[in-house]
Amino acid sequence: MHHLNYHHLYYFYLVAREGSIAKAAKLLHVTPQTVSGQLSTFESQLGYSLFDRINKRLYLNAKGKVTYQYASEIFHKGNQLAEILNNSDEVNTKEFVIGITNGIPKVLFYDFVHDTMRKFSDVRFVIREDSFDGLLKELAINAIDFIVADRGIAPGTQVNANSYFLGESSLSFFAKQPLAANQRFPECLNHMPLLMQGNTSGIRHALSSWLATEQLYPKIVAEFDDSALLKLFGSENFGVFCAPSAITEHVEKQYNVHCIGKAEALSERYYAITGKSRAEYTLSGHIISSAKEIF
Predict the structure, then answer these.
(1) Which of 73, 165, 173, 188 is within CB 3.0–4.6 Å of 183 for a Cys-Cys bond?
(2) Buried (b) or exposed (e) across 197-227, using 16+ Cβ within 10 A?
(3) 3-state SS of the chain: helix, strand, coil percent to 5?
(4) Which residues contact 106 (CB under 8 A, 6 or more apart)?
């Protein structure tokens, strides 16, 4: 297939979004047979099916899920373009897209960018959260201007980008209840329920190694890619969790927990990643400067 038929893609997008051919047909003001025919033609042109048909119901298969993800972005961008062109006041509005990896604490990200957002009030900032690899793919096709991550670009990565080290923070451990007088840190972590960062987090491997070195064997009750979700479960007394020492005051106040100890040997590093071909150096530079001042 050399050319993508966007008319057929739109029919597919509505069927996937609405969950049925009948609902999509109602939105399009056509018959279900028309939608079904257009969908079949589209799948035939692609050379593979996008849905698994089980008991007369449609379920997106692996290729269908990828196609739907891209179709959603395509038609979302199309709607944005239509709105901008219909509003002459917004034609000159700049858009700056910032990606944040799942493990970055939201309050720290806020500290990095809020001053820039206030200073450049004529810019529309778009914030996207995804995995590190997912954001790099978006950066590679210029769909993202700037990434805040807990790791830099690895040597040999086939992405035309620059990494900037922003700073680092040691890690502290937090619990719903303070330690009893006869408990010491970090020995107290032994057999304690622990909420762990997921495999996508840059600190996961270092944390596991530190626990092994200290001969600590907590009970890992759950793993989270999202740092805010991890803290939320910690605030509900599901287990101990760690977070950057730099935001200790915020974590204690926001989640009503207590810092039970600091692991100086553990630190989380933060990076900014920009595409080498991007022209938004003023915005990127301002965010980088603001972030470095925090540390």
Answers:
(1) 188
(2) bbebbbbbebbeebbeeeebebeeebebbbb
(3) 45, 25, 30
(4) 227, 228
The full DSSP string for 8-68 is HHHHHHHHHHHSSHHHHHHHHTS-HHHHHHHHHHHHHHHTS-SEEEETTEEEE-HHHHHHH
Look at residue 259 and give its three-state secondary structure.
strand
> In a 3-state reduction of DSSP, which class is residue 224?
strand
Percent above pLDDT 90 for the chain? 59
Per-residue pLDDT tens digits for 87-98? 655 555 688 999
Which secondary structure element, helix H or strand E, spans residue 253, and what is its range? helix 248-255
What is the predicted pLDDT for the residue at 2? 57
Distance CA 161, CA 151 (A): 13
In a 13 Å sphere around the CA of 48, the CA atoms on its Cβ side amount to: 8
Q: Return the residue matching tokens 């309050």.
A: 107
**Tokens for 288?**
């980088």
